[in-house]
Each structure stands twice: as C-alpha cells, then as structure tokens.
Amino acid sequence: MPCMRKRTFDELVQLMQKLRGPDGCPWDRKQTLPSLKPFVIEESYEVVDAIDRDDRAALAEELGDFLLQAVFIAELTREEGSFDIYDAITAIHDKLVRRHPHVFGDVEANDAEEVLVNWEKLKNEEAKAENKSVLAGVPQSMPALLRASRLTEKPLASVSIGDVRRMSSTNSTKRSPSSTRRSPLGMLPKFTMKSATCFSRSPTLPAS
C-alpha cells in the first residue's frame, strides 16, 4: 500500500466548505441538520463495530466517517451563523479542563471512582447554575431501555465513594467475562438506516 500524505483537520474543514459551496456537490448542499441525524447514529455504530471486531484498519476508516459528521454539522451551523467547528472544539477543550480539577486544579482523585463522582458533582453544579435539571443531559431521543438506565444513574452524584465501589464490586461479580467487554451500545438493537427515523422526534444530542 503506497504511503499517502497525511491530511490535516483544517483540510477536512476546507473540503467540506468546498463541497457545500456553489461549485460543490448537489447532495452535500441539500443536506440539513435533521437529514444528517441518521448518519451520525449509523457511524457511531460502525465505530463500535470496528472496536468489537478489533479491526484497526476499519476503525481508522470509521473514525474518519464519524469525524466527517461533526465537521459536516458544524459547517451547516457556521453557514447559518450559529457556531463553527472551532467553537465546538473550544467548548469541549474548556469542559475537559473544568471537569478535571484533579489534573488542572487542587482537587484530589485517587482512582477512577472518585473521578466519576467528582465529574457528576461538577456537572450537576453547572446544571444548577444554568437553572437546568440534572436529568436534562439524558436525551429524549435515546431508546427507551437505555434512557431508563441513564436516568437511574443520575443519582450517583449524591452517593459516597464507598457506595460506588461497593456497587462496582457487586456488578463485576454478576457479569460474565464476555459481558465486561461488551460496549454499552451492545444492549441496543441492530441499527439500520430505516430504523433511524425513530430518532427524528427530538433533535436532542447526548450531553456530557
């Protein structure tokens, strides 16, 4: 396989702008935010499938397809004057710094369980400051069983570190070795483009 020059993120952004431009692709110019939702979901499943198959070549390709959806959506919002992809990058960059005070501040977190509890507490504090419900981050568009599971996880922010550890220990003894390797998306039914229409009732995206 010939060695190809590695492209940059900015080149992908510029390519999408070209495709959406007057001399670009009719199909790309026709797309809207609602029309892209099924592709976002499908590409998510493709990434998970490549991970489950331990196929690195497929994973590299599927991650590119997944990244394209973010760039595509951000180009539409840039055109309408809402935000561009760099605003989205800034938002997640600042959130990661803010949610990791044990790395960038003076908070201590000795293990993953403490990080999880601190993350949820910070998330809930931010929601309260914005007058949002702590349940607002659970998308209405989630499949019913998965959404119910996420709703029951929300109270974790109020439990102690010891409670989290005990729950983690209990759950690990109940799961088989194969189930511990299964992705959270594994509980969902197989996705098809046709079934994506069930997600069209709400444009809500998962909140972190």
Brief account:
The chain is mostly helical.
Q: How much of the residues is beta strand, in percent? A: under 5%
Structural class: mainly alpha
Please give the alpha-carbon distance between the first and last residues.
Answer: 39 Å
Mean pLDDT: 78
Oligomeric state of the chains present here: single chain
Tally of helical runs: 10
Number of strands: 0
Globally, the shape reads globular
Instruction: State Rg.
Output: 20 Å
Low-confidence spans:
156-160, 176-207
Characterize the main sheet. Answer: none
**Helix share bin:** 55-70%
What is the string of SSEs from the N terminus onward?
HHHHHHHHHH
- Domain count: the total is 2
Explain the layout of strands and helices.
Elements: H1 9-20, H2 26-30, H3 33-52, H4 56-80, H5 85-98, H6 101-104, H7 112-129, H8 144-153, H9 161-174, H10 177-180
Helix pairs in contact: 1-4, 3-4
Annotation keywords:
208 residues; 61% helix; Helix Hairpins; 2 domains; mainly alpha; single chain; disordered C terminus
Q: Would you give an account of this structure?
A:
The chain has 208 residues and is mainly α. It folds into two domains: 7-87, Helix Hairpins; 99-176 and 184-192, no CATH class. 61% of the residues lie in helices and 0% in strands. The protein has ten helices and no strands. Helix 3 (33-52) runs antiparallel to helix 4. The relative contact order is 0.10.
